[in-house]
Amino acid sequence: MITLMIDTSNRPLSVAINEDGRMVAEINTTVRKTHSATIMVHINHLLESSGYRRNDIDRIVVARGPGSYTGVRIGVTIAKTLAQALGVELYSVSSLAVIAASSGAKGNVLPMFDGRRGNVYSGLYHVSEHFEEVEAAGYKSLKTVYEEMEKHEEVCLLADGSEAFTENLPKYIHAVPRITTVEQYPEILRRENIHEMVPEYLKISEAEKNWINQQQS
After folding, report:
1. Which terminus of the chain is more solvent-facing, meaning fewer CB atoms within 10 Å of its CB: N or C?
2. pTM for the full predicted model
3. Is 207 exposed, middle or buried, given 0-12, 13-18 or 19+ CB atoms closer than 10 A?
4. Selecting from 1.10.10.10, 3.30.460.10, 3.30.420.40, 3.40.50.720, what CATH number does the domain 2-94+178-205 have?
5. Which architecture does CATH list for 96-174?
6. Lowest-confidence region among 45-49, 90-94, 165-169
7. 14-27 pLDDT, tens digit each
């Protein structure tokens, strides 16, 4: 099975082609560029370097969020468009689960990334041969994250060391997404209806918040 994999949910960009769960080609970047300007270039480059054609793709896996509103939307839109055009199945995976799988860490792992306003996106997982959700992914204060950690033993924090909020974190492992890694845990992949799939933002946008406040005033 040939799988095209896409994660544009945050500043890092990760795209890959796997064959039967094994990486054939991948591109991972952490440069500050607009993903909409580079994602198709990278996908075409993967196809050229691997020798596959678009019609060889059997399914698409995309990170559904949480993350940057624009970044998540770009990845999900492209994945849906390609799945529809190619007539292939569409699967999604949590952006936080991508980081957990990419790190190679085992046991209780807690990936997080900056959610701004003093909050983070985070989730707690137990990773072994299988991948189990321990604390649901959400938009949380660091205080809430620490309280969740105290409920469990030996929690490994995962974060992108280039993000400013990590300066105040206790010991953590630098981790960025490599979407190619998630197929080793099929239980974290969710089959999607191409027409009904929506990004998983986990919080409302500022525009939505302002609209709600206007309606309530």
Report:
1. C
2. 0.91
3. exposed
4. 3.30.420.40
5. 2-Layer Sandwich (3.30)
6. 165-169
7. 999 999 999 999 99
